[in-house]
Amino acid sequence: MKAKPAAAPRPSRARTRGRARSTSIAAFVVLAALVPTTASASGTQEVEAELPYVCALPSGQLPATVRVAAEFPARAEVGEAFTPSGVTTTVELPEEAVADLAGRGAAEVRAATRLDVGVAQNAATARAAWRGGAEPVALPESGPLTLVTRGDVPSVAGRGDGDLTFSAGSLAIDLTLAAADGTATGTATADSGSGSGSLTVDCTLAEDAPGQGLLATVPVGTGTGAPSGSPSPTGPAGTSGAPDDGQPDGRGDRQPERQSERSPKVLENTPGTAPDRDDVPPCRYDEQHPPTDVSLNAYVTGYANVKKLKGAAYLPPSCVLIEQGVPVPGPPDPDYLIFDTVSYANFHYQERRQTPPFEATFLSFDFAPVKATMVLEQTDTMRIDSRMKMSMTDFSTTTDTYVRAPLVLHVLDLEVNGTPLDVGSECRTETSLVSEDPDPANFPGDHLVLYGRGELLIGQPATGYLLLSGGVLAGEATIPAFTGCGTDGEDLDRLFTASVSGPGNLIKQVQGQTCAIAAPVFPSPTNEGQCTEDLQPYEIPVAEH
Questions:
Q1: Distances in whole angstroms, Cα of residue 55 to Cα of each of 64, 91, 108, 202
Q2: CB of 104 within 8 A of CB of 195?
Q3: Helices (H), strands (E): how many in the chain?
Q4: 3-class secondary structure for 31-60?
Q5: What pTM was computed for the model?
Q6: What angle do CA 397, 402, 407 make, to 5 degrees?
């Protein structure tokens, strides 16, 4: 497969807005030079790759090896959106890197990455940021450090005939370091002294990388005739950090724009349509829940996998009422200005701290259709911890946010092969959904943990997750055993537990733009709306797989 260089142009400035819009975070992927194999019968090309990088670690420039497996479509139609699927990435850092991390008192690390991906079709190019994270792993006693990651990537569509290529560029690996007791003890950068906390490792593609970092090639259209298009994103307009569609042709009078001259865009949003406002529950403060000067409200939606049933449950838009905290100075760091903020939130549905009821259909034991109606109920207030780090050199900022939510899964109704099964009124998990917490000493107990990262570069729109503007939060949960299921002496607890309970259930939640009750921003010709006239969130987000 011959690579076409995928040069990445500078992103244009977003149009003037009252806020910096945050696009959702794409999941963690570190890429290699993907070499497609033959297409499968389902129209996909299975991809396996290995790509060398050179990474700047405290001990110096060190090589890193990345191996990736994924599936791309064998071919796509013009304008057809697609997303690489089944992405599994293995990142191998050398033994010297392990010594660097151990020297800072770290016993385990959690990785988050930001990969620049060039997307090109004919002469047109765009740039996408592929982001995400991995579960914590212990440092090995000897040998290299291996990080295995899985996740989604942005959707792309070709605007005309011609190969659509994906090429890897620069890579940043953010490592959260934890001591043997699981606690973080300060921060660290590649130039700072010892002490675990966080370390950002910047990596560049090695000069001898196969195909100049080519990841995959997807033919688009008929492949005959003159190329006429460039890659385009999917999703709502105006959310991309890529250049605008129209560009002057440079010949004085402007001629009718041709597709081949249009700058491509790539969105991190998965295609979808937001529900109508009439189809979502109200989201407003009331006499029982009066707002304060720091009150926010927002809609959240998403998907939650049920690993044992090999399916996902759609979580409909749910109202969340948030009390934003006051930033306080974080730990000192010579290279960053750090602020920590603690906020609190509750679901709000019919005066209860829960989601609206939602339905999901699965195939139990791979053949019996099971439809369940469920809700997620809070057992305590959700806590939102955000740490903002501003670089003292280029004033760029990153914000890491952890949402800790004690949520019990309550099953309301159940049908098996179309036949109702009475589960009673108290069928629920024994405890909250449980995630591995990055700071268990300070946050004990059973709760779900969702993580998101936001970034802001000077002169560019924000990307990733920020509490005010929203974005994607993701995590992995263990579903506990069930209790209280069944009526008339029939105990269904063991059946539910055997069919559903267990670890490895991925959750991806999308939060919309918040409405600040004390200073609402209404839609206008110059501003996107943040609040409706009755102070509900203006934006209803779209769930992403």
A1: 7, 12, 19, 6
A2: yes
A3: 2, 30
A4: CCCEEEEEECCCCEEEEEEEEEEEEEECCE
A5: 0.59
A6: 155
The beta strand positions in 154-205, using DSSP E, are 157-158, 164-178, 198-205
Q: Are strands 60-73 and 44-57 parallel, antiparallel or unpaired?
A: antiparallel
What are the pLDDT digits (tens) for 396-449?
999 999 999 999 999 999 888 778 889 999 999 999 999 999 899 999 999 999
Q: Which residue's entry shows tokens 């110096």?
A: 60
Long-range contacts of 337-342 (CB under 8 A, 24+ apart): 337/389, 337/390, 337/392, 338/187, 338/387, 338/388, 338/389, 338/390, 339/387, 339/388, 340/385, 340/386, 340/387, 340/388, 341/385, 341/386, 341/387, 341/388, 341/467, 342/383, 342/384, 342/385, 342/386
Total Cβ atoms within 10 A of residue 515? 27
Which tokens in the block code for residue 327? 């930033």
Both tokens of 411, joined, read 């099953």
Provide the token pair at 193: 């002294």
Cα 422 to the center of its chain, rounded Å: 37
Q: If residue 215 lies in a helix (H) or strand (E), which one and from where to where? A: strand 214-218
Beta carbons of 270 and 82 less than 8 angstroms apart? no
- The DSSP line for 130-145 is EEEE---EEPPSSS-E
Rounded CA gap, 167 and 210, in Å? 11
CA separation for the pair 385, 382 (Å, rounded)? 10
Question: Quick one: pLDDT at residue 178?
Answer: 82
Q: 360 vs 301, 316, 364, 415, 472, CA distance in Å?
A: 14, 11, 12, 11, 21
**3-state SS class at 289:** coil
**Residues 465 and 473: beta-carbon distance below 8 Å:** yes
Evaluate whether 132 touches 27 at the Cβ level (below 8 Å). yes
Closest CA to 458 of 397, 529, 534: 397
Q: What is the pLDDT of residue 168?
A: 82
pLDDT in tens, 264-281: 445 444 445 667 788 899
Q: For residue 120, what are the CA distances in angstroms to 27, 39, 73, 83, 217?
A: 21, 21, 16, 15, 10
- Residues making up the chain, counted from first to last: 545
Bridge-based pairing state of the strands 164-178 and 471-479: unpaired
For residue 449, give both structure tokens. 């943990």
**Residue ranges of E strands in 365-423:** 368-378, 382-391, 397-405, 407-416, 419-420
